[in-house]
Design a protein that fits this description.
- The complex is a heterodimer of chains A (246) and B (300).
- Chain A is of the alpha/beta class and 246 residues long.
- Chain A is 30% helix and 27% strand.
- In chain A, the strands form 2 sheets. Chain A has a 6-stranded mixed β-sheet, with helices on both faces.
- In chain B, 26% of the residues are buried.
- Classes of the chains: A alpha/beta (246), B alpha+beta (300).
- The interface between A and B is medium-sized, with 25 and 22 residues.
Chain lengths: 246, 300
Amino acid sequence: MNSFLNHVTSRLPNSSNAAIAPEVIVRLQKVSKVYDENTPCLQDINLHLKRGDFLFITGSSGTGKSTLLKLLYGEERATSGRVYVNGYNMDKLKGDRLAKFRRRVGVVFQDYKLISNRTVFENIAFVLQAQGRRKREIERRVLPTLKMVGLAHKAAYFPDQLSGGEQQRVSLARAIVGTPPLLLADEPTGNLDSDNARQILRTLLNLNTYGATVIVTTHDTQLAHMSKQPIIQLRQGRLYWLKRVG
Amino acid sequence: MLQSLTKLGYLLRETFSGLRRGGWMNWAAISTVTVLLFLFGICVQTSWQLDSLLNHFGSQLEISVYLEPDVQGETLLSQVERRSEVKQVRMISKDQAWESLLQELGVTDMEEATQQLEGNPLVDELKVLVKDADTVPRVVEELSAIPGVDRCVYVNEARERFKQLQWGLNWVSLSLTVILSFTAIAVVTTTLNLIAVSRRNELEIMQLVGATKVWIFLPFIVQGVIFGVVGGGLALTLLTSLRTVVARVLVNQTDFLRFIVEGLQLNPLQLYLLAFIIFSLGISVGTISSFFAIRRFSFR
Protein backbone atom coordinates (compact mmCIF):
# COMPACT_ATOMS: atom_id res chain seq x y z
CA MET A 1 0.00 0.00 0.00
CA ASN A 2 1.29 3.43 -0.83
CA SER A 3 2.16 5.53 2.08
CA PHE A 4 0.40 8.81 2.49
CA LEU A 5 2.53 11.75 1.54
CA ASN A 6 1.52 15.30 1.99
CA HIS A 7 4.94 16.40 0.92
CA VAL A 8 5.97 15.24 -2.50
CA THR A 9 9.28 16.14 -4.02
CA SER A 10 10.03 14.60 -7.37
CA ARG A 11 13.61 13.81 -8.25
CA LEU A 12 14.84 13.11 -11.70
CA PRO A 13 16.67 9.84 -12.25
CA ASN A 14 17.64 10.15 -15.90
CA SER A 15 19.68 13.27 -16.17
CA SER A 16 19.39 13.75 -19.89
CA ASN A 17 19.06 17.41 -19.06
CA ALA A 18 21.77 17.53 -16.47
CA ALA A 19 23.21 20.67 -18.06
CA ILE A 20 20.24 22.66 -16.86
CA ALA A 21 20.61 24.12 -13.39
CA PRO A 22 18.34 22.31 -10.95
CA GLU A 23 16.25 25.34 -10.15
CA VAL A 24 12.81 24.98 -8.69
CA ILE A 25 10.14 25.63 -11.30
CA VAL A 26 6.99 24.55 -9.42
CA ARG A 27 6.42 24.84 -5.70
CA LEU A 28 3.12 24.28 -3.94
CA GLN A 29 3.00 24.95 -0.21
CA LYS A 30 0.01 23.67 1.80
CA VAL A 31 -2.29 24.34 -1.10
CA SER A 32 -6.00 23.74 -0.69
CA LYS A 33 -8.76 24.39 -3.16
CA VAL A 34 -12.38 24.32 -2.10
CA TYR A 35 -15.29 24.67 -4.53
CA ASP A 36 -17.91 23.38 -2.11
CA GLU A 37 -17.25 23.59 1.62
CA ASN A 38 -18.31 20.01 2.29
CA THR A 39 -16.09 18.52 -0.42
CA PRO A 40 -12.66 20.13 -0.65
CA CYS A 41 -11.02 19.45 -4.00
CA LEU A 42 -7.39 19.69 -2.90
CA GLN A 43 -6.10 19.55 0.69
CA ASP A 44 -2.75 20.74 1.99
CA ILE A 45 -0.85 19.81 -1.15
CA ASN A 46 2.91 20.24 -1.15
CA LEU A 47 4.75 19.72 -4.40
CA HIS A 48 8.25 20.58 -5.44
CA LEU A 49 9.50 20.25 -9.05
CA LYS A 50 12.84 21.22 -10.54
CA ARG A 51 13.57 22.32 -14.08
CA GLY A 52 13.72 19.36 -16.43
CA ASP A 53 11.55 17.11 -14.25
CA PHE A 54 8.83 14.89 -15.65
CA LEU A 55 5.88 13.96 -13.46
CA PHE A 56 2.73 11.94 -13.97
CA ILE A 57 -0.27 12.77 -11.82
CA THR A 58 -2.87 10.03 -11.89
CA GLY A 59 -6.27 9.67 -10.32
CA SER A 60 -9.81 8.89 -11.32
CA SER A 61 -12.13 11.49 -12.81
CA GLY A 62 -13.12 14.33 -10.52
CA THR A 63 -10.24 13.95 -8.09
CA GLY A 64 -8.85 17.40 -8.88
CA LYS A 65 -6.11 16.67 -11.45
CA SER A 66 -7.30 19.41 -13.81
CA THR A 67 -7.76 21.82 -10.91
CA LEU A 68 -4.18 21.21 -9.84
CA LEU A 69 -2.96 22.09 -13.33
CA LYS A 70 -5.27 25.12 -13.50
CA LEU A 71 -3.59 26.42 -10.35
CA LEU A 72 -0.29 26.19 -12.20
CA TYR A 73 -1.34 28.30 -15.18
CA GLY A 74 -3.50 30.75 -13.28
CA GLU A 75 -6.91 29.62 -14.45
CA GLU A 76 -7.88 28.94 -10.82
CA ARG A 77 -6.60 30.37 -7.55
CA ALA A 78 -5.83 28.41 -4.40
CA THR A 79 -8.27 28.83 -1.52
CA SER A 80 -5.30 28.68 0.85
CA GLY A 81 -1.58 28.03 0.61
CA ARG A 82 0.99 29.30 -1.87
CA VAL A 83 1.59 28.40 -5.51
CA TYR A 84 4.89 29.43 -7.11
CA VAL A 85 5.57 28.73 -10.79
CA ASN A 86 8.72 29.83 -12.55
CA GLY A 87 9.41 32.14 -9.63
CA TYR A 88 6.00 33.83 -9.69
CA ASN A 89 3.54 33.81 -6.81
CA MET A 90 0.42 32.80 -8.72
CA ASP A 91 -1.88 34.42 -6.20
CA LYS A 92 -0.53 37.83 -7.15
CA LEU A 93 -0.39 37.41 -10.91
CA LYS A 94 -3.13 39.35 -12.68
CA GLY A 95 -3.86 41.11 -15.96
CA ASP A 96 -0.95 41.59 -18.33
CA ARG A 97 1.60 40.01 -15.98
CA LEU A 98 -0.50 36.83 -15.92
CA ALA A 99 -0.82 36.96 -19.73
CA LYS A 100 2.96 37.28 -20.15
CA PHE A 101 3.55 34.48 -17.62
CA ARG A 102 1.28 32.18 -19.66
CA ARG A 103 3.49 32.67 -22.72
CA ARG A 104 6.11 30.66 -20.86
CA VAL A 105 3.75 27.78 -20.04
CA GLY A 106 2.43 25.38 -22.68
CA VAL A 107 -0.90 23.74 -21.95
CA VAL A 108 -2.35 20.68 -23.70
CA PHE A 109 -6.08 20.42 -23.06
CA GLN A 110 -8.08 17.23 -22.84
CA ASP A 111 -10.74 18.69 -25.15
CA TYR A 112 -8.03 20.05 -27.52
CA LYS A 113 -9.56 23.55 -27.61
CA LEU A 114 -8.92 24.00 -31.33
CA ILE A 115 -10.66 26.69 -33.35
CA SER A 116 -12.84 24.87 -35.84
CA ASN A 117 -12.84 27.50 -38.60
CA ARG A 118 -9.05 27.82 -38.71
CA THR A 119 -6.63 25.42 -40.33
CA VAL A 120 -4.05 23.42 -38.41
CA PHE A 121 -1.37 25.96 -39.37
CA GLU A 122 -3.58 28.88 -38.34
CA ASN A 123 -4.49 27.24 -35.03
CA ILE A 124 -0.82 27.00 -34.11
CA ALA A 125 0.12 30.38 -35.58
CA PHE A 126 -2.77 31.89 -33.64
CA VAL A 127 -0.87 31.45 -30.36
CA LEU A 128 2.11 33.36 -31.69
CA GLN A 129 -0.13 36.02 -33.25
CA ALA A 130 -1.95 36.46 -29.96
CA GLN A 131 1.43 37.00 -28.35
CA GLY A 132 2.28 39.68 -30.92
CA ARG A 133 5.04 37.72 -32.74
CA ARG A 134 6.14 38.75 -36.23
CA LYS A 135 4.92 36.97 -39.35
CA ARG A 136 8.39 35.76 -40.31
CA GLU A 137 8.99 34.31 -36.86
CA ILE A 138 5.59 32.62 -36.92
CA GLU A 139 6.37 30.95 -40.27
CA ARG A 140 9.80 29.92 -39.00
CA ARG A 141 8.35 28.21 -35.94
CA VAL A 142 5.08 26.60 -37.02
CA LEU A 143 6.22 24.13 -39.68
CA PRO A 144 9.09 22.58 -37.67
CA THR A 145 6.71 22.20 -34.73
CA LEU A 146 4.18 20.44 -36.96
CA LYS A 147 6.98 18.17 -38.21
CA MET A 148 7.83 17.29 -34.63
CA VAL A 149 4.31 16.00 -34.00
CA GLY A 150 4.15 14.37 -37.46
CA LEU A 151 1.49 16.59 -38.95
CA ALA A 152 3.39 18.80 -41.41
CA HIS A 153 1.43 17.27 -44.29
CA LYS A 154 -1.87 18.29 -42.70
CA ALA A 155 -1.08 21.95 -42.12
CA ALA A 156 -3.90 23.09 -44.42
CA TYR A 157 -6.52 20.77 -42.89
CA PHE A 158 -9.30 21.96 -40.59
CA PRO A 159 -9.67 20.29 -37.17
CA ASP A 160 -12.90 18.55 -38.23
CA GLN A 161 -10.95 16.77 -40.96
CA LEU A 162 -8.57 15.20 -38.43
CA SER A 163 -8.87 12.18 -36.14
CA GLY A 164 -8.95 12.62 -32.36
CA GLY A 165 -5.29 11.65 -32.07
CA GLU A 166 -4.30 14.11 -34.76
CA GLN A 167 -6.31 16.89 -33.10
CA GLN A 168 -4.55 16.17 -29.83
CA ARG A 169 -1.19 16.36 -31.59
CA VAL A 170 -2.20 19.76 -33.01
CA SER A 171 -3.07 20.82 -29.48
CA LEU A 172 0.36 19.60 -28.36
CA ALA A 173 2.05 21.47 -31.22
CA ARG A 174 0.24 24.63 -30.20
CA ALA A 175 1.43 24.18 -26.61
CA ILE A 176 5.09 23.79 -27.58
CA VAL A 177 5.38 26.21 -30.51
CA GLY A 178 6.50 28.99 -28.20
CA THR A 179 9.15 26.67 -26.64
CA PRO A 180 7.90 27.10 -23.09
CA PRO A 181 10.09 25.79 -20.24
CA LEU A 182 7.01 24.27 -18.56
CA LEU A 183 4.52 22.01 -20.30
CA LEU A 184 1.25 21.00 -18.65
CA ALA A 185 -0.75 18.25 -20.32
CA ASP A 186 -4.23 17.67 -18.95
CA GLU A 187 -5.37 14.13 -19.84
CA PRO A 188 -3.65 14.38 -23.26
CA THR A 189 -4.43 10.73 -23.98
CA GLY A 190 -7.89 10.66 -22.43
CA ASN A 191 -9.84 10.33 -25.66
CA LEU A 192 -7.28 8.40 -27.70
CA ASP A 193 -6.66 4.76 -28.63
CA SER A 194 -3.52 3.12 -27.27
CA ASP A 195 -1.40 3.75 -30.41
CA ASN A 196 -2.17 7.45 -30.44
CA ALA A 197 -1.75 7.62 -26.67
CA ARG A 198 1.72 6.09 -26.92
CA GLN A 199 2.67 8.50 -29.71
CA ILE A 200 1.63 11.51 -27.62
CA LEU A 201 3.52 10.12 -24.64
CA ARG A 202 6.65 9.61 -26.75
CA THR A 203 6.51 13.23 -27.93
CA LEU A 204 6.14 14.50 -24.36
CA LEU A 205 9.11 12.38 -23.22
CA ASN A 206 11.12 13.71 -26.17
CA LEU A 207 10.36 17.27 -25.20
CA ASN A 208 11.50 16.48 -21.69
CA THR A 209 14.82 15.28 -23.01
CA TYR A 210 15.21 18.69 -24.68
CA GLY A 211 14.89 20.29 -21.24
CA ALA A 212 11.21 21.08 -20.82
CA THR A 213 9.62 20.41 -17.46
CA VAL A 214 6.54 18.29 -18.12
CA ILE A 215 3.55 17.51 -15.90
CA VAL A 216 1.04 15.07 -17.32
CA THR A 217 -2.26 14.20 -15.71
CA THR A 218 -3.93 10.93 -16.67
CA HIS A 219 -6.47 8.51 -15.28
CA ASP A 220 -4.60 5.72 -17.14
CA THR A 221 -2.12 4.43 -14.57
CA GLN A 222 -0.94 1.71 -16.94
CA LEU A 223 0.13 4.25 -19.51
CA ALA A 224 2.06 6.17 -16.86
CA HIS A 225 3.80 2.99 -15.78
CA MET A 226 5.02 2.44 -19.37
CA SER A 227 7.62 5.14 -18.82
CA LYS A 228 10.32 5.32 -16.16
CA GLN A 229 9.06 8.66 -14.85
CA PRO A 230 7.77 9.30 -11.33
CA ILE A 231 4.06 8.94 -10.72
CA ILE A 232 1.94 10.43 -7.98
CA GLN A 233 -1.70 9.77 -7.38
CA LEU A 234 -4.32 12.28 -6.38
CA ARG A 235 -6.89 10.72 -4.08
CA GLN A 236 -9.45 12.48 -1.90
CA GLY A 237 -7.63 15.73 -2.42
CA ARG A 238 -4.22 14.46 -1.30
CA LEU A 239 -1.09 13.27 -3.09
CA TYR A 240 0.34 9.73 -2.76
CA TRP A 241 3.47 8.32 -4.39
CA LEU A 242 2.77 5.51 -6.82
CA LYS A 243 6.26 5.35 -8.26
CA ARG A 244 9.22 7.15 -6.89
CA VAL A 245 12.40 7.42 -8.91
CA GLY A 246 15.94 7.87 -7.74
CA MET B 1 8.13 49.83 -37.19
CA LEU B 2 7.83 46.19 -38.30
CA GLN B 3 6.33 45.33 -34.92
CA SER B 4 3.75 48.11 -35.34
CA LEU B 5 2.82 46.87 -38.81
CA THR B 6 2.43 43.33 -37.45
CA LYS B 7 0.14 44.65 -34.74
CA LEU B 8 -1.85 46.75 -37.21
CA GLY B 9 -2.20 43.75 -39.53
CA TYR B 10 -3.41 41.57 -36.65
CA LEU B 11 -5.82 44.27 -35.48
CA LEU B 12 -7.36 44.72 -38.92
CA ARG B 13 -7.60 40.97 -39.50
CA GLU B 14 -9.30 40.31 -36.17
CA THR B 15 -11.63 43.30 -36.58
CA PHE B 16 -12.65 42.12 -40.04
CA SER B 17 -13.12 38.59 -38.73
CA GLY B 18 -15.41 39.97 -36.00
CA LEU B 19 -17.42 41.97 -38.52
CA ARG B 20 -17.81 38.88 -40.70
CA ARG B 21 -19.12 36.95 -37.70
CA GLY B 22 -21.58 39.76 -36.94
CA GLY B 23 -23.40 39.35 -40.28
CA TRP B 24 -26.73 41.14 -40.28
CA MET B 25 -26.25 42.22 -36.69
CA ASN B 26 -23.68 44.71 -38.02
CA TRP B 27 -26.41 46.28 -40.09
CA ALA B 28 -28.71 46.50 -37.04
CA ALA B 29 -25.97 48.32 -35.12
CA ILE B 30 -25.00 50.64 -37.97
CA SER B 31 -28.59 51.53 -38.87
CA THR B 32 -29.42 52.35 -35.24
CA VAL B 33 -26.35 54.57 -34.99
CA THR B 34 -27.29 56.16 -38.33
CA VAL B 35 -30.83 56.96 -37.14
CA LEU B 36 -29.47 58.46 -33.92
CA LEU B 37 -26.90 60.59 -35.73
CA PHE B 38 -29.31 61.62 -38.49
CA LEU B 39 -31.95 62.85 -36.04
CA PHE B 40 -29.29 64.47 -33.88
CA GLY B 41 -27.84 66.12 -36.99
CA ILE B 42 -31.27 67.41 -38.03
CA CYS B 43 -31.77 68.92 -34.57
CA VAL B 44 -28.36 70.60 -34.54
CA GLN B 45 -28.74 71.77 -38.11
CA THR B 46 -32.26 73.14 -37.56
CA SER B 47 -31.18 74.93 -34.42
CA TRP B 48 -28.36 76.62 -36.32
CA GLN B 49 -30.68 77.38 -39.22
CA LEU B 50 -33.22 79.01 -36.91
CA ASP B 51 -30.43 81.02 -35.38
CA SER B 52 -29.28 82.10 -38.79
CA LEU B 53 -32.88 82.84 -39.81
CA LEU B 54 -33.33 84.96 -36.70
CA ASN B 55 -30.31 87.00 -37.58
CA HIS B 56 -31.52 87.17 -41.15
CA PHE B 57 -34.85 88.50 -39.92
CA GLY B 58 -33.07 90.78 -37.55
CA SER B 59 -31.02 92.34 -40.31
CA GLN B 60 -34.20 92.99 -42.24
CA LEU B 61 -35.91 94.45 -39.24
CA GLU B 62 -36.69 98.06 -39.56
CA ILE B 63 -38.39 100.15 -36.97
CA SER B 64 -40.89 102.54 -38.50
CA VAL B 65 -40.88 105.72 -36.40
CA TYR B 66 -43.91 107.91 -37.13
CA LEU B 67 -43.55 111.50 -36.04
CA GLU B 68 -46.21 113.90 -34.81
CA PRO B 69 -47.95 115.87 -37.60
CA ASP B 70 -46.13 119.14 -37.15
CA VAL B 71 -42.64 117.65 -36.61
CA GLN B 72 -40.12 117.66 -39.47
CA GLY B 73 -38.13 114.43 -39.97
CA GLU B 74 -34.85 116.31 -40.45
CA THR B 75 -35.02 117.69 -36.91
CA LEU B 76 -34.84 114.24 -35.36
CA LEU B 77 -32.72 112.48 -37.99
CA SER B 78 -29.29 113.26 -36.55
CA GLN B 79 -30.47 112.56 -33.00
CA VAL B 80 -31.57 109.06 -34.00
CA GLU B 81 -28.49 108.41 -36.15
CA ARG B 82 -26.18 109.17 -33.24
CA ARG B 83 -27.42 106.18 -31.25
CA SER B 84 -24.85 103.39 -31.03
CA GLU B 85 -27.40 100.60 -31.68
CA VAL B 86 -28.55 102.19 -34.92
CA LYS B 87 -27.02 101.06 -38.16
CA GLN B 88 -28.84 103.25 -40.62
CA VAL B 89 -31.68 105.78 -40.72
CA ARG B 90 -33.69 106.62 -43.77
CA MET B 91 -36.23 109.43 -43.81
CA ILE B 92 -39.45 109.28 -45.78
CA SER B 93 -41.09 112.68 -45.84
CA LYS B 94 -44.86 112.89 -45.70
CA ASP B 95 -44.83 114.24 -49.28
CA GLN B 96 -42.92 111.20 -50.57
CA ALA B 97 -45.22 108.90 -48.64
CA TRP B 98 -48.31 110.69 -49.95
CA GLU B 99 -47.08 110.48 -53.52
CA SER B 100 -46.30 106.83 -53.19
CA LEU B 101 -49.67 106.10 -51.59
CA LEU B 102 -51.58 107.89 -54.30
CA GLN B 103 -49.64 106.01 -56.95
CA GLU B 104 -50.43 102.70 -55.31
CA LEU B 105 -54.12 103.75 -55.15
CA GLY B 106 -54.04 104.64 -58.83
CA VAL B 107 -54.82 108.35 -58.35
CA THR B 108 -53.31 110.39 -61.17
CA ASP B 109 -54.30 113.92 -60.17
CA MET B 110 -52.35 114.50 -56.99
CA GLU B 111 -53.30 118.13 -56.47
CA GLU B 112 -57.01 117.46 -56.67
CA ALA B 113 -56.76 114.61 -54.22
CA THR B 114 -54.78 116.80 -51.79
CA GLN B 115 -57.34 119.58 -52.07
CA GLN B 116 -60.20 117.21 -51.47
CA LEU B 117 -58.63 116.03 -48.21
CA GLU B 118 -57.64 119.57 -47.22
CA GLY B 119 -53.93 118.86 -47.35
CA ASN B 120 -51.56 115.87 -46.95
CA PRO B 121 -52.97 113.74 -44.07
CA LEU B 122 -49.71 111.74 -43.55
CA VAL B 123 -46.72 112.37 -41.25
CA ASP B 124 -42.93 112.16 -41.68
CA GLU B 125 -41.50 108.72 -41.04
CA LEU B 126 -38.00 107.51 -40.07
CA LYS B 127 -37.03 103.98 -41.12
CA VAL B 128 -34.48 102.87 -38.50
CA LEU B 129 -32.29 99.82 -39.08
CA VAL B 130 -30.58 98.45 -35.94
CA LYS B 131 -27.26 96.55 -35.75
CA ASP B 132 -28.32 93.76 -33.39
CA ALA B 133 -31.77 92.17 -33.49
CA ASP B 134 -31.74 91.67 -29.74
CA THR B 135 -31.64 95.40 -29.09
CA VAL B 136 -34.80 96.17 -31.08
CA PRO B 137 -37.26 96.28 -28.15
CA ARG B 138 -34.98 98.57 -26.14
CA VAL B 139 -34.37 100.90 -29.08
CA VAL B 140 -38.12 101.11 -29.74
CA GLU B 141 -38.74 102.03 -26.13
CA GLU B 142 -36.13 104.74 -26.20
CA LEU B 143 -37.21 106.15 -29.57
CA SER B 144 -40.83 106.29 -28.39
CA ALA B 145 -39.73 108.52 -25.53
CA ILE B 146 -38.21 111.18 -27.82
CA PRO B 147 -40.42 114.30 -27.98
CA GLY B 148 -41.99 114.58 -31.42
CA VAL B 149 -42.26 110.82 -31.96
CA ASP B 150 -45.84 109.63 -32.18
CA ARG B 151 -45.34 105.84 -32.27
CA CYS B 152 -42.95 103.09 -33.36
CA VAL B 153 -43.91 99.94 -35.26
CA TYR B 154 -41.77 96.80 -35.73
CA VAL B 155 -42.28 93.12 -36.45
CA ASN B 156 -41.60 91.70 -33.03
CA GLU B 157 -43.97 88.78 -32.85
CA ALA B 158 -42.45 86.61 -35.57
CA ARG B 159 -39.03 86.97 -34.02
CA GLU B 160 -40.27 85.98 -30.56
CA ARG B 161 -42.02 82.94 -32.03
CA PHE B 162 -38.81 81.86 -33.69
CA LYS B 163 -36.94 82.24 -30.43
CA GLN B 164 -39.49 80.09 -28.61
CA LEU B 165 -39.30 77.52 -31.39
CA GLN B 166 -35.53 77.39 -31.14
CA TRP B 167 -35.65 77.00 -27.35
CA GLY B 168 -38.22 74.21 -27.66
CA LEU B 169 -36.20 72.52 -30.39
CA ASN B 170 -33.06 72.56 -28.27
CA TRP B 171 -34.86 70.72 -25.49
CA VAL B 172 -36.47 68.25 -27.86
CA SER B 173 -33.10 67.55 -29.52
CA LEU B 174 -31.36 67.09 -26.17
CA SER B 175 -34.02 64.63 -24.96
CA LEU B 176 -34.05 62.81 -28.30
CA THR B 177 -30.27 62.55 -28.35
CA VAL B 178 -30.09 61.16 -24.83
CA ILE B 179 -32.84 58.58 -25.42
CA LEU B 180 -31.52 57.52 -28.82
CA SER B 181 -27.94 57.36 -27.53
CA PHE B 182 -29.04 54.85 -24.91
CA THR B 183 -30.89 52.86 -27.57
CA ALA B 184 -27.88 52.90 -29.91
CA ILE B 185 -25.51 51.91 -27.10
CA ALA B 186 -27.83 49.03 -26.15
CA VAL B 187 -28.04 47.75 -29.74
CA VAL B 188 -24.31 48.09 -30.48
CA THR B 189 -23.44 46.49 -27.12
CA THR B 190 -25.73 43.55 -27.86
CA THR B 191 -24.23 43.16 -31.34
CA LEU B 192 -20.66 43.16 -30.06
CA ASN B 193 -21.64 40.88 -27.21
CA LEU B 194 -23.15 38.36 -29.63
CA ILE B 195 -19.98 38.50 -31.74
CA ALA B 196 -17.90 37.95 -28.59
CA VAL B 197 -20.07 35.00 -27.56
CA SER B 198 -19.73 33.44 -31.02
CA ARG B 199 -15.95 33.79 -30.66
CA ARG B 200 -15.86 32.77 -27.02
CA ASN B 201 -13.78 29.70 -27.77
CA GLU B 202 -11.13 31.75 -29.56
CA LEU B 203 -11.09 34.45 -26.89
CA GLU B 204 -10.72 31.88 -24.12
CA ILE B 205 -7.82 30.23 -25.94
CA MET B 206 -6.23 33.62 -26.53
CA GLN B 207 -6.34 34.30 -22.80
CA LEU B 208 -4.91 30.88 -21.99
CA VAL B 209 -1.99 31.25 -24.40
CA GLY B 210 -0.95 34.62 -23.05
CA ALA B 211 -2.67 37.32 -25.09
CA THR B 212 -3.10 40.53 -23.13
CA LYS B 213 -6.56 42.01 -22.58
CA VAL B 214 -5.80 44.94 -24.88
CA TRP B 215 -4.70 42.51 -27.60
CA ILE B 216 -7.90 40.48 -27.20
CA PHE B 217 -10.38 43.32 -26.89
CA LEU B 218 -8.91 46.06 -29.09
CA PRO B 219 -10.57 44.55 -32.21
CA PHE B 220 -13.94 44.94 -30.44
CA ILE B 221 -13.20 48.59 -29.69
CA VAL B 222 -12.23 49.14 -33.34
CA GLN B 223 -15.46 47.43 -34.40
CA GLY B 224 -17.45 49.84 -32.21
CA VAL B 225 -15.56 52.78 -33.72
CA ILE B 226 -16.27 51.46 -37.23
CA PHE B 227 -20.00 51.29 -36.42
CA GLY B 228 -19.80 54.91 -35.28
CA VAL B 229 -17.85 56.11 -38.32
CA VAL B 230 -20.02 54.28 -40.88
CA GLY B 231 -23.19 55.43 -39.09
CA GLY B 232 -21.85 58.99 -39.07
CA GLY B 233 -21.02 58.86 -42.79
CA LEU B 234 -24.49 57.59 -43.66
CA ALA B 235 -26.16 60.18 -41.43
CA LEU B 236 -24.16 63.01 -43.03
CA THR B 237 -25.04 61.76 -46.51
CA LEU B 238 -28.72 61.70 -45.58
CA LEU B 239 -28.51 65.18 -44.05
CA THR B 240 -26.77 66.63 -47.10
CA SER B 241 -29.34 65.03 -49.42
CA LEU B 242 -32.20 66.35 -47.32
CA ARG B 243 -30.75 69.88 -47.34
CA THR B 244 -30.27 69.78 -51.10
CA VAL B 245 -33.81 68.51 -51.75
CA VAL B 246 -35.42 71.12 -49.47
CA ALA B 247 -33.39 73.91 -51.05
CA ARG B 248 -34.38 72.74 -54.56
CA VAL B 249 -38.07 72.55 -53.67
CA LEU B 250 -38.11 76.00 -52.08
CA VAL B 251 -35.98 77.84 -54.60
CA ASN B 252 -38.82 78.26 -57.11
CA GLN B 253 -41.32 79.41 -54.53
CA THR B 254 -42.43 82.91 -53.48
CA ASP B 255 -40.09 85.64 -52.36
CA PHE B 256 -40.83 84.94 -48.73
CA LEU B 257 -39.88 81.26 -49.04
CA ARG B 258 -36.76 82.21 -50.97
CA PHE B 259 -35.92 84.52 -48.13
CA ILE B 260 -36.38 81.56 -45.76
CA VAL B 261 -34.11 79.36 -47.93
CA GLU B 262 -31.35 81.95 -47.68
CA GLY B 263 -31.68 81.82 -43.93
CA LEU B 264 -31.50 78.01 -43.96
CA GLN B 265 -28.07 77.85 -45.61
CA LEU B 266 -25.19 76.63 -43.41
CA ASN B 267 -21.82 78.29 -43.80
CA PRO B 268 -18.71 76.12 -44.50
CA LEU B 269 -17.58 76.35 -40.89
CA GLN B 270 -20.95 75.04 -39.70
CA LEU B 271 -20.79 72.20 -42.23
CA TYR B 272 -17.38 71.07 -40.94
CA LEU B 273 -18.53 71.50 -37.36
CA LEU B 274 -21.66 69.44 -38.03
CA ALA B 275 -19.54 66.63 -39.53
CA PHE B 276 -17.14 66.79 -36.58
CA ILE B 277 -19.97 66.68 -34.01
CA ILE B 278 -21.72 63.77 -35.76
CA PHE B 279 -18.55 61.68 -36.11
CA SER B 280 -17.55 62.45 -32.52
CA LEU B 281 -20.92 61.33 -31.19
CA GLY B 282 -20.86 58.22 -33.41
CA ILE B 283 -17.36 57.24 -32.30
CA SER B 284 -18.23 57.91 -28.66
CA VAL B 285 -21.35 55.73 -28.85
CA GLY B 286 -19.35 52.95 -30.56
CA THR B 287 -16.51 53.09 -28.06
CA ILE B 288 -18.79 53.19 -24.99
CA SER B 289 -20.77 50.23 -26.39
CA SER B 290 -17.56 48.25 -26.95
CA PHE B 291 -16.53 48.76 -23.34
CA PHE B 292 -19.96 47.62 -22.13
CA ALA B 293 -19.79 44.55 -24.38
CA ILE B 294 -16.34 43.63 -23.10
CA ARG B 295 -17.33 44.22 -19.48
CA ARG B 296 -20.35 41.95 -19.84
CA PHE B 297 -18.24 39.34 -21.57
CA SER B 298 -16.09 38.52 -18.57
CA PHE B 299 -13.96 35.48 -18.02
CA ARG B 300 -10.76 34.87 -16.15
